[in-house]
Structures are given as C-alpha cells and as structure tokens.
Specification:
Homotetramer; dimer of dimers. The protein contains twelve helices and eight strands. Helix 1 crosses helix 2 and helix 11 packs across helix 12. By secondary structure, it is an alpha/beta fold. The protein has an eight-stranded parallel beta barrel, surrounded by seven helices.
C-alpha cells in the first residue's frame, strides 16, 4: 500500500476564551500546517484534546478542516474510544464528513485482553469503508495491542492498514513489520523515534513536532526513504533536542504554548489541561529561540 504521507501532524485544537472550539482558528492553523511540511493531519487525537470534545464538535471540526485544506490533503479522524459501541457509531458519522481515514486507540481504562482488543477493532473495521489506523500508546491507555493481534487484524480486515506505534519499543515495531502483510504501514508515534522506526520498516510519523518543524521532519523521512541515510541522520540529530523537549510536561501543553508563541492560532486549553506556568513557559521560549522559531 502507498503511504498516506511522510508526516501527518496530530493537530492541536484551539479553543476560545469561553471554552468553545475556535473553528476559524483551526482552519487557519490547518492551512498553515499543510503548507509547512505536513502531508496530512490527524484531528481530535490526544494532541487535539479530543477526549474533552463532544461528538458534535468533532464532526463539525472534521468538516471544517476538510473545507479549509481542500480535497487533496489526507485527513485522519480520531474516532476510537474505550467504548466499542460508541466508537462504531461515531466512525460511521465521521465517514460522512469527507475524512480519508480514521484512527482508533487501544481501549483505555478497561484493560481488555488481546481477544477484547481484536473484537473491538474488528467491530470498527466492519462498520466503515474507511482505512483504519490502529493507535498503540500504552503510556496513556494502560494496555496495548500486541504485534500478533495487529497482524491478525491486518490479515483479516482489508481496511485495517496502518498502526501509529507509540510504545517506545523498537522490538515491538520490528515484530509488527515482520508479522504483518506486505504494505502494512507503520507510523512512529514518537517524533524522536521516527528515524529508528524507519530503519525497521516504518513509513513516517504522526507528529507533534510537525507544528514547529514539519518541513525538516518531512525532509528527514523522505531523505531516508530515498536512500540518503546520512542526510536523514543529520536532520535527526538537529531536531532531537526539540523533539524531546516538547514532552517535558504532558502533551499537548508544550506544543500548544509553543504554537502560540510563534504567532500561530493556538487558543485556550480545556480542563483538566491548563496553561504552562511561567517557569515552564520560559523553558519553551528558550528552545524556540534556540531553533530561531520566535
């Protein structure tokens, strides 16, 4: 299968001072990202504070961003949750908004068995014709889907075509690449591990740093895939400090603060997330200045 792009940025969601979704600011930011290195966007994921948005807000945002960036940009709607029935129903509604794919996280809090994970993703796959990206992020979910279960799903459902791997475990990524059918797409879910994941079979990154250094990230991935490993390594080493510092406190707080500091629409947070304190903001300004971003 052809890749969906090298860099899919997991976009933040700007909120107004009254707590509403700022659709105009979201459209503006989306247009900026796709002209600065992002091949596509993931909407309402963890970085987009999707867990505190209503279904109606998300659907409107999917449609708003589709209109803002045009039909050629690859859009992924985060439609998964820890409730299988709700995930199925919401995926069906998201498909109507014009997105190109959906992303479904391993059910959090419930801690399902591997059979439970299989049944959860199978139900979502059977509900839609959209391509599905599985999202493995044990640091947030307290459980994970194994390479064996991913391979079972990929072999049985033609629309389960990719995984966002944020386990931090390169052995696991290698096993996914070894077990899954040819053409199954593996996206890094950690910016700083993108290059190592490319080396064991990955195709790109679903990125947080893409908000700030999307063009450089894209160049790194395309350089590696074109065989210029040395160039890819140089870019990796240049970007490594900022990729790591963007996670010094809970994502998306640092990146959302940084986006605002460089003059792009970032907006407010929704509780339980809050703005960085003054010491944390100064740390963010320092690494932005180090990269001549503000």
């Amino acid at each position: 299968m052809k890749s969906f792009g090298s860099v899919l940025t997991a976009m933040i969601t700007p909120f107004t001072e009254t707590g509403a979704v700022d659709y105009q600011a979201s459209a503006q930011l989306a247009r900026h990202l796709v002209t600065h290195g992002s091949d596509g966007l993931v909407i309402c994921g963890s970085t987009g504070e999707g867990a505190v948005m209503t279904a109606e807000e998300k659907l409107k945002l999917f449609a708003t961003i589709r209109e803002a960036v045009g039909p050629e940009i690859f859009l992924v709607a985060n439609t998964g949750s820890n409730n299988t029935q709700q995930s199925v129903a919401f995926t069906k509604e998201a498909e109507k908004t014009g997105v190109n794919a959906c992303m479904a996280v391993v059910p959090y809090y419930n801690k399902p068995t591997q059979e439970g994970c299989y049944q959860h993703f199978a139900a979502i796959a059977q509900s839609t014709s959209l391509p599905i990206i599985l999202y493995n992020v044990p640091g947030r979910t307290a459980s994970q889907v194994t390479p064996e279960t991913i391979a079972r799903l990929a072999n049985e459902f033609s629309n389960i075509v990719a995984v966002k791997e944020a386990s931090g475990n390169l052995n696991q990524v290698s096993e996914i690449a070894r077990l899954c059918p040819e053409g199954f797409l593996i996206y890094s879910g950690d910016d700083s591990l993108t290059l190592p994941i490319l080396a064991v079979g990955g195709c790109g990154v679903i990125s947080v740093a893409g908000h700030l250094v999307g063009e450089q990230l894209n160049q790194m991935v395309t350089s590696f895939l074109a065989g210029d490993v040395q160039k890819a390594q140089q870019i990796h080493y240049q970007l490594l400090p900022i990729m790591k510092k963007l996670f010094f406190i809970s994502n998306p707080i640092p990146v959302k603060e940084a986006v605002g500091m460089i003059g792009l629409p970032a907006g407010e947070f929704r509780l339980p997330l809050v703005h960085a304190n003054e010491k944390e903001k100064e740390f963010i300004r320092e690494f932005l200045n180090a990269y001549d971003l503000c």
